[in-house]
């Protein structure tokens, strides 16, 4: 056998041996994935399929579900409180999300300047994201923006009198929840900071040599190279905002008041399903929310090709 033939034979044996060694790794991977697969099937997929079936039934939890066809969909079309909850949710999403991301990006840019104690500041600024969705912070927020809360006390010390209870006023109640959402900027800020650290410094050095100001560098270098991170944060925060529940429930006392001004879609879904025991209607609402989130996510992915810049 020639030397070339021997090399081909050795490569073939090595290839066959490598193929045999892959099977134990695959089995081990499946073993480690088993808990996740069981959780996905038992906690996510099967309940979703069950809720899809319940969406076409009249189900009160106290009696067997009764098939009603499209009655729940017709009821949603005529439900004015549902329409109002969608309007409130859209306002919250499309005002709160951009403001939150602007604040997060601004602080990420500041933290990226190489200041001392960066790890400490990063942890402090991330803390609101961990606490913002908690019941304790929502209760604190309600107290702060109450008629006799800390905010009005500070305004009173500055000479302002007759200030309203912000959470009890229909004109300002939703604004306090938007402000709470903006305050939980820590998670997108950390992601922005990681993205800023990946931008090569040579681009800024070349721009400085050409006489570009810091503002021009920000809009011509930072923003274009950061667009994948911005896109990721936009999609993630819009999905999270549509699912907001705890803040509205606690601040409004579970009523969505005053005058349904904080009646988020998720809160109205909760009221229908667990307060009025209309689980069939609540299931239909849940699927409507899924469709709305899917539509906005698809729109974001479609539009992203016009403004998101990738290296390739």
Automatic annotation (TrEMBL):
Keywords: Cell membrane, Membrane, Transmembrane, Transmembrane helix, Transport. It is a multi-pass membrane protein. Residues 86-300 form the ABC transmembrane type-1 domain. GO terms for cellular component: plasma membrane. SUPFAM superfamilies: MetI-like (SSF161098). This is Sugar ABC transporter permease. Its main location: membrane. It is found in: Cell membrane. Belongs to the binding-protein-dependent transport system permease family. It comes from Candidatus Brachybacterium merdavium. GO terms for biological process: transmembrane transport. It holds the Pfam family BPD_transp_1. InterPro entries: ABC_transporter_permease, MetI-like, MetI-like_sf. PROSITE patterns: ABC_TM1. The chain crosses the membrane at residues 30-56, 90-111, 123-141, 173-196, 217-239, 282-303. The keyword Secreted does not apply.
């Amino acid at each position: 056998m020639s030397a070339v033939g021997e090399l081909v034979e050795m490569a073939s044996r090595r290839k066959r041996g490598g193929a045999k060694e892959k099977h134990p790794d695959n089995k081990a991977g499946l073993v480690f994935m088993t808990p996740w697969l069981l959780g996905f099937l038992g906690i996510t997929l099967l309940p979703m399929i069950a809720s899809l079936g319940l969406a076409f039934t009249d189900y009160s939890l106290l009696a067997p579900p009764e098939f009603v066809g499209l009655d729940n969909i017709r009821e949603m079309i005529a439900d004015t409180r549902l329409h109002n909850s969608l309007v409130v949710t859209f306002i919250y999403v499309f005002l709160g999300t951009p403001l939150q991301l602007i604040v997060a990006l601004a602080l990420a840019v500041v933290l990226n300047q190489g200041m001392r104690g960066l790890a400490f500041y990063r942890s402090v600024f991330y803390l609101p994201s961990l606490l913002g969705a908690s019941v304790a912070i929502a209760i604190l927020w309600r107290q702060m923006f109450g008629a006799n809360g800390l905010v009005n006390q500070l305004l009173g010390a500055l000479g302002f009198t007759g200030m309203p209870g912000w959470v009890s006023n229909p004109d300002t109640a939703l604004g306090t929840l938007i402000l709470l959402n903006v305050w939980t900027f820590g998670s997108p800020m950390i992601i922005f900071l990681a993205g800023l650290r990946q931008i090569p410094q040579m681009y800024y050095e070349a721009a400085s040599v050409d006489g570009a100001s810091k503002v021009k560098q920000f809009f011509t270098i930072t923003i274009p190279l950061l667009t994948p991170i911005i896109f990721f944060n936009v999609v993630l925060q819009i999905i999270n905002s549509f699912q907001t529940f705890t803040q509205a429930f606690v601040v409004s006392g579970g009523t969505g008041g005053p005058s349904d001004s904080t009646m988020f879609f998720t809160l109205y879904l909760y009221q229908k399903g667990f307060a009025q025991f209309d689980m069939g209607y609540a299931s239909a609402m849940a699927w409507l929310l899924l469709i709305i989130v899917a539509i906005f996510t698809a729109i974001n992915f479609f539009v992203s090709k016009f403004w998101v810049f990738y290296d390739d």
